[in-house]
Structure formats: structure tokens, C-alpha cells
Amino acid sequence: MKFIHTSDWHIGRSLCGVSLLEDQRHFLRQFTDYLEQEQPDAVVIAGDLYDRPVPSAEAMELLDEFFSKTVLELKIPVLAVAGNHDSGQRLAYERDFLAKAGLHMAGTLTNPVETVALSDEWGPVYFHLLPWLDPAAVNSLFREEERVRTMQEAFDRMTEAVFRNVKPGGRNILVCHGYFSMGSGSSQAEELGGSELVELSAYRDFSYIAAGHIHRKMPAGPNLRYCGSILKYSPNEIANRPSVTLAEVGQDGEAHWQEVSFPPLHDMRKIAGSFAELMGSEKSEDYIFAELTDPELVLDPARRLRERFPNLLGVAYTQREQASSAFTVEAEQAKSLSISELFSQFYQEITGVPLSEDALKLVSDAAHQAEKEAHE
User: Fold this and answer.
1) Helix (H) or strand (E) holding 81
2) Torsion of Cα atoms, 99 then 102 then 103 then 107, to 10°
3) Contact at 8 Å (CB) between 195 and 179?
């Protein structure tokens, strides 16, 4: 059984006011071409198809184009679960009707959990679709049961609903969205992206766990894998290399996988240097965050840098920020200094040069006038 594991598409996302819809369209075109060439048995999307619960018409149209091409033309089933950015009810709309065409969308929790069986030459492989959940949603589903309070308790309760469809000795795959480990994550943070760390050791005998939510591709256990997002979606993700995962499950249930990357329409990078150095560098259409090392402020740097980098997303002064964070004055010392003396010290720490006599007089006069008005 050969399938593509992907997640965190965030269709309709914007970054610093710039829509990424065309970047997402570019990815989906390449991805569809790859599917046509590779002909996998299924595409598995582990949550966050959209970037917000009520997506724009353009975002919905783009995703519909992909579904129509993949399911109706290429005849490749798509199995998807809702992520924390999705509206589960919206994805679950007309679920039974869509499933007949090969589009399986698990948006809301069910008991038992929705399971899709696909067959290869060795028999069925069972895909268990577990959408994003929280304690409130689980308590609504199990009204007669003792209430759960934590994410771990919620997943443990839903595990019962998953295993109702698990065939002993069968090949099983869990599709889920959240922050997971296989019991060896003691060094991991307690929470990530609004999701508590949940142990999935109950699924240790599954062939593969296709997880979404973390935007960086990584294994989180022997059979638990995050495939990462399809694009870089924040400055914190610049070091990421977005990809999808091509996974194969053999007759014995053992899974093997490899990463498949696609060139982005625009890469995302940080560049650093003086304003003059950056203005002299090669033009680029990439999404750029510029870090200026100039000790003095540059007049309207963003507008001027866009001559070289039309997709500039942000400008920061690294040296000035470092100097600002490093400037401290002890409280007792500050009491003995005038406002103009404090400002003079601050100015020199930030710029590296002393305040001129004329500027010092202006500050002193302004401070004197402010004190006078305060006592009137």
C-alpha cells in the first residue's frame, strides 16, 4: 500500500498582509502532477486544510479544484481529518455523499471513529481518521461516561472508539492532528501550538501514524511521523524544508517512507547587512525579512529595499535592538541623574556616539519645560 502523507496546508493564509494563495496554488499544481506520475493508492491529509474555520471563497475554490482533479479525474482516494484551524462541521458536510466519490473527510468525532479500508495485493489496510479533538468535544460525544479533563484523557477515551474498528493482525494506520509522542518525549515541551503533549503508546503496533500540527518534518516515534507543512508559514520556519511523505506499507505491516519536495514559488529568507550592502545585492522575488546592521536609522528603508526585494515582509535593526536590550541603569544611580543625563547615556548606548552639545541643550530645555508644566 503506497500513500502520500501531507498536512498543514493552511489554504488561504496570509503573512504580514501578503496572501500566500498563489504560492499554495503553485504547490498544488506540482503536487497534482506528482500524483498523476506516482499513482499512489491514497492521499492522506492530517489536518489544517484551511487556515481558518471560515475560509474565503478563493481558498475553498482552490481546494475544490485539487479534490476534483485528484478524486474524480485521477481516481485517487483522499482521506483527510480536521485540524485545529479547520471547522470540523464544515469539512464533515455531506460526508457520506463525498465518500462515495472517494473523498473521505472526518471533520467531527464519531464513535466508532471513521475507518476507511483500502486494499492492495495483500488485502485491506485500515485508515482510522481521528480529527482534532479536545475534552469538550469528547464529553459531548460520550455524555453518559465520566467527564475527561485533559487532552491525554480525551485521546485515551477516543482510543476506545478507534479500536472498535481495529482488526487483530491487520494493517492499521492512524491519521490524527495534535502534539504527540510515543512515551519517550520527556525532553519535549509540555505544550505546542495550543495543544498539550499526548502519548500515543497505545498505537505502538500500528503500521504508521500520520500526524499533523507540527510544521517541521520529523519522526516522533518508531511509527509516528510528522510530514511538516507544504510551505514556510512564519519567520520561525525559515530553516524548514517543506515536503510531503511518500509512505509504503508492506505485507508484514512494516512501513517505509521517503520525503518528496517541490520548488516553492517564493522561498522565505532572512538577509542581514548594512543598508548599502543590501541595496547592492542581487534582486530576488523571495519573501524577505531584512536585518539592518546600520548604527543609524535609515530613512524609509522598507520602501527603498523593495526596489531590490519586491516581496519584502519586514525590516529590523539588529545592532540597535541589541544595544537597547543591553542598556540598563541601576535604580539608585538613576535617582542621582537628571533626565538629560539619562537620555544622553541612553543615546550613546544606542548609537555608539555621544550626544552633541546642541542636542543635549534641546533635551535639557524640553525636560525643564515639561517639569514646569507639570507643577502649574
Assistant:
1) strand 78-81
2) 40
3) yes
pTM for the model stands at 0.82
If you write DSSP's letter for every residue of 283-325 in order, what string do you get? P--SEEEEEE--SS--SSHHHHHTTT-TTEEEEEEHHHHHHHH
Edge-first strand order for the sheet with 312-317 is 268-273, 287-292, 312-317
| The three grid cell numbers given for residue 365, joined into one nine-digit string | 530645555
Cβ atoms of 210 and 249 closer than 8 Å: no
Q: What angle do CA 236, 181, 200 make, to 5 degrees?
A: 140
Average pLDDT over residues 287-314: 93
Instruction: Tell me the sheet residues that pair with 118.
Output: 125
Q: Measured between alpha carbons, how far is residue 316 from residues 209, 281, 371 in Å?
A: 41, 18, 34
Contact residues for 291 (Cβ-Cβ < 8 A; gap 6+)? 270, 271, 272, 273, 315, 316, 317, 318
pLDDT at 187 over 50: no
Rounded CA separation 69/65 (Å): 6
SS3 state of residue 105: strand
The C-alpha cell that represents 346 in the structure block? 541612553
Burial 178-204 (b: 16+ CB within 10 A, else e): bbbbbeebeeeeeeeeebbbbbbebbe
